[in-house]
Amino acid sequence: MSATEPHSGSEHDADGFVDFVRAYTKTWVHALAAAALTAFGTLTVVNRWFAALALAAYLVPLVVLYARWRRTGGELGMGPGAADQSASRSVAQSMDDQQPQSQEDEPAAVSASVNENVSDAATAPDTDETASDSTPHEPAVDAGTAPDEEQSTADVPRSRPDRDVEWTTADAPTEAPLSDVAITDAGHSYAVGDGGVVLASSNAGDWRTVLEDGPAAAGNDLAGVAATDDGDAVWIAGDSGTVARIDTATDRHTDYTAPTGITDNWLGIAVGGDAGTETILLSNGSGELLCGRYRRDPTGTDNATSGPGELAWDEPLTPGSGSSLSGVDLADDAMGYCCDTNNGVFETTDGGTSFSRIGLDDAAGTFTDIVAATPASPSPVPVLVSADDGVVHRYDGATWTPERVTDTAVTGLAVGGERLLACTDDGAVFERQLNSTEFSSATGIADSLRAVAVGPPRAVAVGSDGAIVERQH
After folding, report:
1. Terminal-residue alpha carbon distance, the chain
2. pLDDT by residue (tens digit) across 123-139?
3. Across the beta sheet with 160-161, what order do the strands follow?
4. Is 241 helix (H, G, I), strand (E, B) or coil?
5. Residues 6 or more apart whose Cβ sits within 8 Å of residue 376
6. Which terminus has fewer CB within 10 Å in the chain: N or C?
7. Cis amide linkage into residue 380, ω under 30° from 0
8. Can you give the pLDDT at residue 74?
9. Could you tell me if 39 and 51 are in contact, meaning their C-beta atoms sit under 8 angstroms apart?
10. Cα dihedral 147, 152, 153, 159 sign
């Protein structure tokens, strides 16, 4: 039997091959094979064995698809079905797996590589029927929520998207970067930022300007805002010694800038106690704390209309080594905490008269904020410190436990009741119950967030370009 007459249907087969070639040259597989032929052919100037790769890249698809043509009775089958995807993956794999051999390699190495790919491609059609029955892949775990290998893995939470957490963007009356926010139990929200701007809101989305350029219209940037326990007053602090008290019923303020003559830039402020009996802590970049005590005036009122109350300041003290204080918080008028950029955490139980160090020795990141739950929360009072490596450290009165939240900097923390919130510099907010280890997350809700607060009616986070995002409970 001659090579041109393998069986009685030789004439039909010859015509079929011509038809196949005509159809094949119109497919994307042929275009890809031709491109590979050209690319590998060009590389023969580097290594002559690229010629073998070029021939394999062009001939393997031709052989595989012609076999299919014969088996399916003239159907090339280049649609988007599972069988065609399997064949195209086999062809692509046969080309991707080819690695150029050095000039010292033996020809047998190239020959074996080509033969192996021809074998893989030739068996591709056999997997077509099982492609649609393959088991779906498990969803990949977000790398940002994986436990830090350098941190303890005990109680390390994993964040998860929570479709029930819906944050909305408020129409802020400023484009100035906002640095801090506070929410009172009565639902009043205050935010402060660059240029001395102070914003307030009593209803979700309804923000108004209280101060456009700070106390005395000085225009100094504001870094912190904190409310009294009853929410009747808020205090603000910032650059050049700026300090002021705002009555939440009237939005009128009293200027207390440069307490005891200090004009340093205040980086943070904390307030504990009810209006009229509040304790104030101010922190600066030199690691100093200034403690003040505000007392109701003799008339029995302390709003701006009747005049200011009496405010007394202690001498400044330095709890740590002098490193910049990055966070300060008061759980009430006696118990408070602060942290610095040298990873020191300090506690006061006498309203800021003295502080003692309570940690932290083995943290990898630099601390960014600190928050303490109120004494009404489960005892002992949980203390939480955030860091720029995405870890939040929890203190239970005896032991520090690291909890990885994300892989970017956690810039702000807030505790309200049994809820903990953390915001990040890439515009995300993470939330969980205090006694839980699993965070829900809302990501991409702002370009960058600097602070977050939570109260009975809602939660609010603020950040760059006047960003205000909030959600109702």
Report:
1. 86
2. 444 434 333 343 343 33
3. 160-161, 440-442, 429-433, 419-424, 410-416
4. helix
5. none
6. N
7. yes
8. 57
9. no
10. negative
Over residues 103-159, the pLDDT tens digits come to 444 334 333 443 444 334 334 444 343 333 433 433 333 333 333 334 443 444 444
Q: How far is 205 from 35, CA to CA, in rounded Å?
A: 57
Angle (CA) 439-442-444 rounded to 5° is 140
Q: Which residues contact 137 (CB under 8 A, 6 or more apart)?
A: none
Q: How far apart (Å, rounded) are the C-alpha atoms in residues 49 and 41?
A: 10
Q: Counting Cβ atoms within 10 Å, is residue 64 exposed (0-12), middle (13-18) or buried (19+)? A: buried
Q: 264, 220 in Cβ contact below 8 A?
A: no
CA dihedral 342, 347, 351, 354 (to 10 degrees): -70
Residues 32-89: pLDDT tens digits?
878 777 877 777 767 777 788 778 877 888 787 777 767 665 555 554 333 344 444 4
Give the pLDDT confidence score for residue 68 in this predicted structure.
Answer: 72
Residue 367 and residue 363: Cα distance in Å, rounded? 9
Q: Residue type for 472, please?
A: Q
- 370's enclosing H/E stretch is strand 367-372
Give helix 10-24 / helix 50-71 axis angle, nearest 10°: 120
Q: CA-to-CA distance for 455 and 473, rounded, in angstroms? A: 9
d(C-alpha 221, C-alpha 236), whole Å: 11
**Could you tell me the two tokens for 306?**
């009747």
Q: Residue 133, SS3? A: coil
Q: What is the pLDDT of residues 186-241, one digit of tens each?
A: 889 999 999 999 999 987 779 999 999 999 999 999 999 999 999 999 999 999 99
